[in-house]
Design brief:
alpha+beta
Length: about 190
């Protein structure tokens, strides 16, 4: 059966039947390893280096109302890069012929920003997990002296985290909420 990759749309595409906003489509044309792709992403796997891949968006609302629930969508692939997502074949062909170096620079910039954001969130989470580890170590070995107590006080997590039933789960939830609040959920959560 295999796994799907998810293509996320830059902005939701309305269902042609009911107007319900659809924000992504799943495909088996690339890696099939549950990857997440956005316009500008390098598509791994698959045999499409340049061209248009036809997929179908699926509308749950139309399915429940017993209306046509599948509609074509066109993925524009340029040198293994997802260059666009269009609702008509003509628009997809036009997009494919219009890809230029400025698009590449923009996608590279976005990829670098996304990687830097991901790296920053990763190291913030890692730092908080290390603080939690220090807290646990101080609890099991309180006779480590004044230096250990000062270090534990400096690197202390919030009482909300430390008193939670599942501190690690609370820590992850806090970081997830911070990423959503900052508008940077992509590639991390």
């Amino acid at each position: 059966m295999g796994l799907f990759d998810t293509i996320h749309f830059p902005k939701p595409i309305p269902c042609p039947e009911c107007g319900e906003e659809i924000s992504s489509v799943q495909t088996k044309d690339f890696d099939c390893l549950m990857g997440n792709y956005y316009v500008g992403s390098v598509l791994r796997g698959g045999s499409i280096l340049k061209g248009i891949v036809t997929e179908e968006i699926w509308c749950e609302k139309c399915f429940e109302a017993k209306r046509e629930s599948r509609h074509p969508i066109y993925l524009v692939v340029w040198n293994s890069i997802l260059a666009g997502i269009e609702t008509t074949e003509g628009a997809a062909e036009q997009r494919l012929s219009a890809v230029d170096r400025l698009d590449l620079v923009g996608w590279l910039d976005e990829a670098q920003r996304s990687a830097a954001d991901w790296r920053g969130r990763f190291f913030q989470l890692l730092g908080d997990i290390e603080k939690w580890h220090m807290h646990l170590a101080h609890q099991t070995n309180p006779e480590e002296g004044e230096g250990g107590k000062r270090m534990a006080a400096i690197f202390k997590l919030s009482d909300e985290i430390l008193q939670a039933q599942d501190p690690l789960g609370a820590l992850i939830a806090q970081h997830r909420e911070n990423a959503k609040r900052d508008g940077k959920p992509r590639g991390w959560w």
